[in-house]
Structure formats: structure tokens, C-alpha cells
Amino acid sequence: MHTVLTNSNRTCDVTVVLPCYNSANSLARALDSVLAQTQADLRICAVDDGSTDDTADILERYATYGLPLRQRHAGQAAARNRGIRISDSPFVAFLDADDYWLPNKLERQLAVLRQNPNVGLVCSDCATIQEGKFAGSYFGSVTAPAAGKLFERLVRECFVFTPTVVVRRKCLDEVGLFDESLVVSEDFNLWLRIAARWEIAVVPEVLAVREIRSQGLSLSTRPEICLQNGIAALENVKSVCDGLSPAEIRALQQEIAERYYVYGSHLLVSGVRDESRAQLAHALHRQPAHWRAWVKLGLSFLPNGAFRRLMEARRSFV
């Protein structure tokens, strides 16, 4: 294991912020992957977000290597923000307890940030484990973007995965931290606020592995909550990011309209017709040419029996 600074008064190169909640089954793997980094000048700031399993005991075993903190359960955004606030490194990296890093991750990404002062955030390719099996990597199927102002692509396609991110502290000081009012999509919201002002760089090789678990936050959160938070995350970006170009504003408006459309479609299939119409109307207000929203709005006025038969016929062709 590499040496990790803990009580030294000297500022470390990078602080690794690791929120954890009932993560006893995977936490040691995540921590070991940090300690195995070829970048040795780092500090771990692990925040136990009110766990009720053995998470606290595991963190205590690693206390020599970092700053284990404990708080009442307040959500992953609040846990990450606490870790950011207590640290003073010029760079901050994020890792979740279900995920882990390859040994050269931090060294590769910190080199990019040091060489490019206009880059506020660097991410990388990310492999996924699902149901115990590798499910490929993100940039294995799509082309990685070149470094630069990537707001338009990011708002349409979230290619930034939290365990791949290293961000410049100056960047966080400028745009703010994670929005603690969001249950999910708080990370996407922050990456977009950064992309609105800073350049983003992508290392197109797998430097992190994320594991998707059925009990994970994204899969265990009700679809309505996920959809509502996705809309709120984008609406917040629209309200706080003043310097967007006309093309960036159009891309943001189109994505907000699409999110309202998806939410309205979900409500329509769930039988919540009045609220479905309201969400579809929001989509059309932002993108009047959204023909699919017009179609779904029309379907919402069909009699219940006719709508049910239409849905059954549609399923028979899928």
C-alpha cells in the first residue's frame, strides 16, 4: 500500500471523497483501490452517512489512512459536500463505496489537470459490472469527446460517471457543491454547472469500475422520484448558468422538454392522466415541435377502455 497523508499540516495533492451508506460488503474493496494508487500524495475523506451495518467498523480499520467521518443520514450529496468542505487539496476525486479504481487512475488524470489550466474536470472511461458480470465500458461503444467546452454533448448524453471524476477545487469554489435537495441526478447537475464555465477533459481508457446493484440508490429509488429529480436538476442549471451560448441554451431546452415528455409518458401509462397532461404541456411549452408529446397528449384524452386496448395491442407487437 502507498503512504497516504493523514495528520500532516501539508496540503495533499488530492482528496478522495468517499460517501458510504450501509456499504460493508464493498467498502474495503473501494478503499483498497485508493490505497493502491500510483499517486501516493492523497488523503481519503470517507463519510459514513448514518449506516446501520458494519460500515463504521470497516472505516475504523482504515482510519490510519484518512479522515473517517460520521453523520446522520442525509443523502450522498450531503455526505460528499461534507468531505469537500473539510478538505483543502487543490484537486478533489470522487469514489462511491460500490465502485473501485484501477491503480494509475489518479496519476493519469492529475497530469491532465496540471497540464491544462482551463480544464476544471477530468473524467475517464468506466467499466460496468452488472449481476456479477462485466457489461462493457461506456466509451467502448461511443466515441470519446476531445477536451473542450462539452456542455452541449453532456446535457444530451451524461458521459461523466462519478467514480471517474477528478475536479479542480477552484472550479468547485466557483460553481458551488452538490445540490442537497436532489435525491438523484445531483452529480449530473454539478457536472453541467462545471461544463457551463470550464473545459472538460476525457481520458478514453477504463480507469474506474462501477458495480450496479439492485439495492443501489438509482435502482431502488421510485421512477417518479428519479424523473422529477432529473427535471429539477436541469431546471436548476437553466436558472443559475448565465453565460450559456445560444446553442447551449437550445440543447438544454430540448433536453428539459424531453425529460418532461418522458415523465408525462410514464404518468400516462400509470393512469395518472391529469398530471400526465400537465407534464406533456411543459414539454410542448419548451419545444412546440415535439410531435411525440403531441401524440401522447392526444392519447391522454382517449376513453379508458380504448386506451387500455391500445396499450395491450402495442405490447403484443413488442
Characterization of the model:
This protein has 2 domains: 207 residues, Alpha-Beta Complex (Spore Coat Polysaccharide Biosynthesis Protein SpsA, Chain A); 72 residues. 45% of the residues lie in helices and 18% in strands. It has 13 helices and 9 strands. The termini are far apart.
Report the order of strands and helices. Answer: EHEHEHEEHEEHEHHEHHHHHH
Shape label: globular
The major pleated sheet works out as: 9 strands, mixed
At the third CATH level, what is the topology name of the largest domain?
A: Spore Coat Polysaccharide Biosynthesis Protein SpsA, Chain A
CATH class category of the largest domain: Alpha Beta
Q: Can you name the CATH architecture of the largest domain?
A: Alpha-Beta Complex
**DSSP, total strands:** 9
Q: Supply the CATH superfamily name of the largest domain.
A: Spore Coat Polysaccharide Biosynthesis Protein SpsA, Chain A
Radius of gyration, Cα only, in angstroms?
Answer: 21 Å
Amount of helix? 40-55%
Q: What's the short version?
A:
The chain is of the alpha/beta class and 318 residues long. It has 13 helices and 9 strands. The chain folds into 2 domains: 14-220, Spore Coat Polysaccharide Biosynthesis Protein SpsA, Chain A, CATH 3.90.550.10; 245-316.
